[in-house]
User: What shape does this take?
Amino acid sequence: MKLQIALDLVDTNTALKMVEKIQDIIDIVEIGTPMIVKEGMAPVKAMKEKFPQVTVLADVKIADGGAIESGYAVDAGADIVTVLAIASDQTIMGARDAAHKAGREIYVDMLSVPDVVARAKELDTMGVDYIGVHTASDVQGLGKTPYEELRQIAEVVKNAKIAAAGGINLGTIGKVKELGADVGIVGSALTSAPDLRQAVESYQAIIKGE
Amino acid sequence: MKLQIALDLVDTNTALKMVEKIQDIIDIVEIGTPMIVKEGMAPVKAMKEKFPQVTVLADVKIADGGAIESGYAVDAGADIVTVLAIASDQTIMGARDAAHKAGREIYVDMLSVPDVVARAKELDTMGVDYIGVHTASDVQGLGKTPYEELRQIAEVVKNAKIAAAGGINLGTIGKVKELGADVGIVGSALTSAPDLRQAVESYQAIIKGE
Assistant: This one.
């Protein structure tokens, strides 16, 4: 399983400094939606320019204008671009095609999907690269977690890689791997760690079964 | 009914030049999602700085992190901020509160909502300022339009203002008004007009029944 760090509440310079410390031990660096809302594609571009060898995901959460917005992320250098599963199939396919034409990947975020099993089956026939379950940060306070949905989609997704996000921490990253995720996404549990490099090493040790 | 122009596929400078021509006759200027994906809040900030009297809507299409992302748009000067209706109630209320605390408004976009009547009723009890039906640009080619959904929500929304977007043009803006919209949103039909000012005047003449 790969480890993805979600950088949400930092500016571009802070994000670059954080990744500098972990660029050799992190698998995927996510430029989170709040960063994109604030700064657009600038942090994606800056991250790829400074760390071309790092895999960068642009969490655009495309809802419409799939080809156009995916194209912007691709032009900025994103290796992976996110689109919402609740978007129309046309939007998802447009985003997919814009990414694939440039040799990049598309990630479908299952945020707010009522029936994740049915939608995951549909998406899995559409040639998307990742299908990720996602407990919104705004509902984590209600005690919701992504683990049951991860278990459900692991049973039905045959082609795409699967991922999980939403409150994952050092105590649950092992469960995410056991449930079959190809990517485990960790946000504040990593970004708030006093020693970021040591924290990433702790997660990777669990993932690698050390 | 107010007329909103959606600026989607232009850069900040072009957007400023366009609004310069129509700032006294347009009701709401929308900084579209593609602009935000590319440039973040910079175009919102630039628009309000140059035209403080113009009402600016930031089409963030918030899906999570309601308070944070709405706060970013408010800080940039947005008068109205959009959140997706498919987002959790917690996200919508967080976005609403961040906007209202600053004396701004929240607009809920019904993109991809399966049952618009049921969701509009729920949203209307949540103190949001606008509820807008929206036919995604990516599905307009399939012949879909927002008019039937506008008619449906007009019957059930009692508190919020209602709006419609998605392929509206000079031939349909009259129908949007007749169906009871408080705001009619026009994108490419206006932005591709050879004479933007004359085009806005034509729409306003129909809206005002001249």
User: Anything to note?
Assistant: The first strand of chain A starts at residue 2 and ends at 7. Chain A has a mean pLDDT of 98. The beta strands of chain A are 2-7, 28-31, 55-62, 80-84, 105-109, 130-134, 161-165, 183-186. Chain A touches chain B through 37 residues (CB under 8 Å).
